[in-house]
Design a protein that fits this description.
27% helix; 9 strands; alpha+beta; single chain; Pnp Oxidase, Chain A; nine-stranded antiparallel β-sheet
Amino acid sequence: MDELSRMRHEYLGGSLNETEMALNPFDEFKVWLETAIASGLSEPNAMTVASATPEGRPSARVVLLKELNEKGFVFYTNYMSRKGEELLANPFIAAVFDWHEIERQVRIEGIAEKVDEEESDAYFNVRPNDAKIGAWASPQSRMVRGREELEELEKRYANQFSGSEIPRPPHWGGFLIRPTMIEFWQGRPNRMHDRMAYYKGDKGWNMQRLAP
């Protein structure tokens, strides 16, 4: 794979200026997300989420951002999955939005906590029925005998809830990421990228420029 060492991409998309950025990182993120959506990116709400065991063994996967509010970033999952169990045992979390097509990314570090059951219910209720069945049928992150086992589970729960309202499984719900740091990255020529990081302090957010 010698070609990997020769791969180069010059970033020419833009720049970041401290005086032009919002004082609150949530306001800045909303602008960036709107730009990513307007650019026609596939699933611009996709973010890589990293969790770790209490011993510090990390794991990462892609999830979908489903809400942004004044507290932080919300995604939904199976609490009995690997990420769910890790976050319940060790709430430190990191996330990355990689919008490579527009030469931007956002990094988040913070603490994860369960959202209220009412909030999880409200989101679950607007999901398609097939997705609701999937939440019941999938023993997420567990080993299975084969695809046939998953299809049997899906069929079983589809029959169980046929013609009735599908409730939210007790093991499924949302996590809120309460950020302590949000970094905005803009690609620049010669790898001299712009990195602006907001740190949560006792009196609000402090913005600092980081070297690339």
